User: Fold these one by one.
Assistant:
Number 1:
Amino acid sequence: MTLDIHLKHTFPTFSADVDICLPTPGVTALFGPSGCGKSTVMSAVSGLLKADEVRVVLDGVVLSDLHPADRGVGVVFQDGRLFPHMTVDSNLRYGMKRAQAGPVDFAETVELLGIGHLLDRRPGKLSGGERQRVAIGRALLRQPRLLLMDEPLSALDAGRKDEILPFLTRLHDDMRIPMLLVTHSIDEVARLADTLVLMRNGSVVAQGPVGDILTRADLDFASANQAGAVIAARIVSHDPTRGLTKLDAGGVMIWIPMIEEPPSARRRIRVPASEVSLALDDPGPTSADNIVSGVVLNLRETPDRRMTLVEIAAGQARLLSQLTPDAARQLRLEPDMPVKALFKAIGVQVV
Ligand SMILES: Nc1ncnc2c1ncn2[C@@H]1O[C@H](COP(=O)(O)OP(=O)(O)OP(=O)(O)O)[C@@H](O)[C@H]1O
């Protein structure tokens, strides 16, 4: 099943020409610099923007042929936009009035978002994080076919983000509603998205599974020090004596600092490129808890020539290593070369 978006639109100083095909359900992140057209895509999908040319097809239903109110698209904005004169409970129920019957249940949503204790309050008496959770709840209770979230966390400080991210992760895991998420944060992408669409100047530069796109050495994440592998992993076992947990990440065994999750639990990990060193042979005693055998897929020097990015295939996983160009020359790296990727357990982020 897919969500297909075809969009052409020209503003006086900007044009968008976008073709996106996404798997559904799942979370897709639209990512790119300010002004590249992310919100324009969202507005065209919701029908808020009457685009010059637009076709949006969700699982065979041509949404763009429908009136915006009939599209079944839920939208969550940066600032929540709750009705200030209504309690949280009435804000939530407002969404339900126009909704068709659907799988989203009031009690479950309240529980999922942790807002049960807020039902009698008005939005003015909520924190930013609480307000955003209510806004997400209201959008969900409309039983949307598709949920659009335009920088839902960007108005919040780090503490509030940490408060709400686990709820979004649960949304991702528990609800099977396809979601489009605009974000500037690679951390949010790594935590929440399955698919990543990278935009620049009104067009799509790359789209595909998050793990594939973030490890591509030819994209610009590296310049911003944001490059790294995102890998779906399964917990294999714990080693309490070493204080480490072993994960199976696409057939590659990776050690991380011990976490309290039962074996078989699934977690995503992110291995930043800056954490990964390379060697040609087994390095002997080292502080790297992980020594992963792989093969160089490709390498690229960044335009400012300050670093070389090396993409490595290891099992089903892709790793990315960020080296100085000098180190890459010393190793005489080239595609198809076998290498060892070295990184510490504490360098791996569990997201
Ligand atoms: N209604 C409009 N009229 C004229 N120009 C517009 C309009 N809406 C957006 N634009 C222009 O289109 C371009 C893309 O805007 P858009 O909001 O889609 O970018 P964005 O990637 O979402 O940016 P940001 O990350 O800053 O939110 C910008 O140059 C913006 O000025």
Note: Residues 4 and 21 are 4 Å apart (CA to CA).
Number 2:
Amino acid sequence: MALDLEQAMHTADVLTEALPYIQRFEGKVMVVKYGGNAMTDPILESSFARDIVMLKTVGIHPVVVHGGGPQVDNLLKELGRSSDRIDGMRVTDKATMDVVEMVLGGSVNKSIVNLINKHGGRAIGLTGKDASLIRAKKSPMSKTDEQGNEQQIDLGFVGDVVSINRDVIDLMIASNFIPVIAPLGVDDEGNTYNINADVVAGKVAEFMLAEKLILLTNIKGVLDKEGNVATGLTPSKVDEMIADGTISGGMIPKISYALEAVKNGVKSAVIVDGRVPHATLLEVFTDKGVGTLISRHP
Ligand SMILES: Nc1ncnc2c1ncn2[C@@H]1O[C@H](COP(=O)(O)OP(=O)(O)O)[C@@H](O)[C@H]1O
Ligand SMILES: CC(=O)N[C@@H](CCC(=O)OP(=O)(O)O)C(=O)O
């Protein structure tokens, strides 16, 4: 009996600790990017879905943007195909684009929607093509070779975000739905583009002037040369870390677009370990949020 009371007091403490955060964030938009690498375990998937439902229930407006890179890799492999990545971007030819659309706009999007709804949320899945939510253009890319010459790289159907039609998201929020967005975009000619999910999350956060951008991934945060979680990152420090190879691969778009989102009006962005159960709740409702924080007011 005494133990039960102790447990109940602990629960009361936890709820009380959350109160100022609930009050502060009520009515605010939070964009949560759910990376394919964080979708690995059914327990973690459920804890993610419950966190999103919890945010909505206390009056915050979560907007989910998801990835699914490893899931695309799996289907490509089953089909006997593969694709290269350059600085975290998948080189996407027409046949790869079809697979990307099938996986991100299909199975991955629907399973996240299903999971959130199973936990009592009202999620609606959409891709950037629905109501032209994500206007895109072909992404130009260049890289400096070992001789110091700039080389143009053709990434195929990889897109950059031109604009986000926030009316669509506002409408869903106003009707109490949780938007779950797959990172596909469309241009004026109707071409479909594969866009890195971190880029889409950063841009959605920017266009929504979100309170927070939470990027869930499979590592503790941005690691410095010594392997410690880096904090207080500035654009020039990040450029330095990319140039010397400390930041590479999928971390390049993640940190770059998180910085850009904050520069363009998002209050804070945080790169957190999605392998920790309830990583989103910890980040939003406690002081114990961990990972790499980028904020306008350090
Ligand atoms: N400096 C760094 N700090 C942390 N992770 C890094 C760094 N440089 C490269 N990475 C790689 O970036 C990965 C996260 O990016 P990515 O695989 O695209 O994840 P997600 O699927 O969550 O978007 C990490 O697992 C790690 O391998
Ligand atoms: C252009 C590009 O790289 N697009 C990504 C989109 C999915 C994604 O970003 O998934 P994660 O967040 O799980 O890495 C891809 O094709 O893998």
Note: The pocket of adenosine-5'-diphosphate (ligand 1) is lined by residues 35-38, 67, 69, 88, 198, 217-219, 222-223, 246-251, 254 (CB under 6 Å).
